[in-house]
């Protein structure tokens, strides 16, 4: 083997100019012959339709002996049904799209995991990260709709996401966290009430001024938390200290904290509107030898795992992520049933049957409710007096059917592209009429730790 001297190694620039990329998916290995249902049927000695009944678990039953022969043939041939082809042929999919603005943010990472738990093991989650970019978000929406997902869960980059890309496909979209301007199903928390409870806890410690390190302006979750901060100061008759805004990130919190701590005056208490920002705040405080909570008490928002493991542990307003995921999947399942679509998500579907969202004739009465009432010791207690704003509506007029011709085999035949509907615009309109629009607002809980100044939380 010939050694390559250091000065003989090709530079990175040399490799990128005119040379093949390190990974080119378009030039993979030669494709092996695809195993078809016909191959399985031939080996099992049954018809193609019987193979489809076994693979798709219906719509017709076959004898146990025949089923075992088909399954053995499937195993021997290595046959794998094409989920996209099945969706094209049947109009049903067991794939849910999820788009988030930042998968590196622990809140959205945990939300993705809990949505998968709520959806069940038989549902595939197709994840996209918009990186907070509206154009990329539109591209991801269009791509997921074209992939025939059953529904899309959108953690929007802004409060006014562009959903035009999914309208022709009539794919249900459930918005989570952001997207306040969207007219459609949405799940969020009471950001204002949570921030109010957090700030009142700091004020209860005796602080006379309260600064705020907030998220970006124009995002409802950030702006509502600022509203809660201002309301707490107004109620207590104290000064609302400086307000500095930054991205919901550690770096954003670090840079904003440096700016805030450089302002004239003493900042003995700060409401930091995101756990990741608070981690950055702690680093900036350490750099100027500012003791937290001895010289500056802070509370934050989100309730991610990071809050419990930094030093000092952060007092935080915890979002009920598992409950958010359950409510999202209830709305997904309810809308799919209203549209005559797939029963996606075994756990969520069964729960939605008994939920207020799943019953379009009744208003949701308890999903949103537990506002944090605080007692004299500063802790937040759950008030079970269901304070829900959620409502479910169904318009029964749009009963125009999904005109998709179904191939009982579960695979797309060569003519599947034109059999969906002779009038797609009218079909999309009728499907939209049957959409269940519900707004579910959940409450948060204050988790008290040392960063606020509580010695024994």
Q: What can you tell me about this protein's structure?
A:
By secondary structure, the chain is α/β, with parallel strands linked by helices. The protein folds into three domains: 34-81, 434 Repressor (Amino-terminal Domain) (Orthogonal Bundle); 89-184 and 322-362 and 391-412 and 426-437, Rossmann fold; 191-319 and 446-452, 3-Layer(aba) Sandwich (Rossmann fold). The chain has 15 helices and 14 strands. It has a six-stranded parallel beta sheet with strand order 2-1-3-4-5-13, sandwiched between helices. A six-stranded mixed beta sheet has the order 7-6-8-9-10-14. Strand 9 (297-302), helix 12 and strand 10 (315-318) form a beta-alpha-beta unit. Helix 2 (37-44) crosses helix 4 (64-77), helix 8 runs parallel beside helix 9 and helix 13 (321-338) crosses helix 14 (346-352). The longest helix is centred in the last third of the chain and has 18 residues, at 321-338. The N and C termini lie far apart (66 Å).
Largest sheet, strands/sense/barrel: 6 strands, parallel
Shape: elongated
Q: Quickly count the domains.
A: 3
Poorly predicted regions: 1-26, 348-430
Mean pLDDT: 77
Question: If helices are DSSP runs of H or I spanning 4 or more residues, what is the number of helices?
Answer: 15
Q: How far from one another are the termini?
A: 66 Å
